[in-house]
Every structure is written in C-alpha cells, then in structure tokens.
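Worked Example 4.2. Consider the chain below.
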Amino acid sequence: MGGLSMEHPWAFAFGLLGNVISFSSLLAPIPTFYRIFKSKSTEGFQSVPYVVALFSAMLWIFYALVKTGEGLLISINAAGCVIETVYIVMYLVYAPRKAKIFTAKIVVLLNIAGFGLIFLLTLFAFHGETRVVTLGWICVGFSVCVFVAPLSIIGRVIKTKSVEYMPFTLSLTLTLSAIVWFLYGLLIKDKYVALPNILGFTFGVIQMVLYVFYMNKTPMASQVKEGKEAWKAPAEDHVVVINVGKADKSSCAEVRPVTEMAGAVDVPRRCAAEAAAPGQQVMAVDFARSVEVV
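Applying the procedure from the previous section yields the following structure tokens:
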C-alpha cells in the first residue's frame, strides 16, 4: 500500500506528480505576500486559510507516520508546514494589532492545543488499525475545511462581480492537484486520501466556471478604485447648493460654493422656512459622484 513502493508504479507516478503540483500551489500566495511586504500592510487579507492549511499538513504528516510507508504524503506536507509557517510569520509581522492577536489565538488553539490533544488521544486511546482509521477521518474532516475555505472568495466574486482575488491559474492548479491526489488515493486503496479530493475537485471547477463567467463583466476592483480616485477633487470645486425659491421670493434664491454656504451663518431663517414650503426644492449636485462605472 505504500506510495513509494515500486510495486505500485502508477501510484508512485501520481504521488510524485501530486507533490509537484501541490508544491506549486503552496507557492501561489507568494505574490500576495510580496504585496504585503512592499506595502507593509496585510491590506485586509485573512490569516485563517494559512493557519488551517498548516494544521491540515501537520495532521497528514502524523497520519502518514502512523500508517507507515507514505513518504510521498510526508514530503509534500513537510514542505507545506514550512511554507505555511513562513506565510503566518510574515502576516504577524505586518498585520494590525487586532489581527495579530486573533491570529496568535487561533494558532495557539488550533495548531498547538488542538494538534496536541489529537496527538495524545490517538497515541494513548487508540491502537493498531483503529488509530489509523481515527486519524484518517480526522484528516478528512480538516481537509474538507481547507477546501471549503475558498467559499468566502467565491462569495466575494459573486457579490463584487470581480475575479481580482481569484486567479484562474490557482484554481486550475488546485483542481489538477485534487484529481491527481484522488487517483493516488484510489490506486493505493486509501479512502482517507481520495475522499476529500472529490470536494476539492468540485470547488476547483466551480471557481474556474465563475472566473470564466465574471472575468469580462466589470473592471477589477483596483481599477474601479483608481477610477474613483481620479475623479476626486476638493468639494468646493464640484458641489453647489441650489435653493430654488418662489418667483415672488427670489431674494432668497442663491447659488453659492459649499465653502461660502458653510460660513453663511447669518442667512435669515425666513429663507430656510420658505425653502421648506410646498413647491420648493433643495438640490445638491456632486459631479464627482455622478460618474457611472460601466
């Protein structure tokens, strides 16, 4: 059953290919963290996916060690532990104080206390094949959590109609990785490896379909932001307040810049009262906000 055994050449081939694809997936967030490094800010990115991915990798290493003969599982998950740890450390360096505290809490609760509890329980409460089965189902559960994590990104894409935070290449890589690891689990007859990758394949396909559907719908979020920034200007250059009075009370009808209106504290209350009377209108025209982004 061992993935490294040449008695199962196809299993070895798929396991090796899975290592290569999964390793490239682990490197996918590098542009994100380079952006964080350059800006010295986490810019609203969340640490939870990386903490959960680290925990999942730790569990798979433990499972592979208990089962024995699963060198291909150990190699990729060991790489995952190192890379995810680097991501989390970088996040802690540049995150705001509140995000740092939250990240530190979930690392302590999940990766230290949670893993320690699972380690002790499975080591002393279960023996033989029962230990492997128990660990296998635990690994399946948390692998599902890793695959479900992109649901927040899927929701964001649907809500904003922007695929800026869901690169197609990453979705394709994750889908291919799920297919390869499913076949590997199938060939070595390990349902705990195969099952979660069915879900991974499903979510990967959904992400790619959404990307194709939304990629030309609207500009990227950053482009929209830049467009808005380009139209920003001092309020007094764009906004006028038009107080339209009745024809016989035109002395109260004035057009002034906002800055002048703000300082005109001596305007008679009679004009305000008349402006609120039936047939009167108060209009604020903001040309900066009238631009429609198509």
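The CA atoms of residues 1 and 189 lie 7 Å apart. The beta strands are 239-244, 255-257, 281-286. Compare this with Example 4.1 before moving on.
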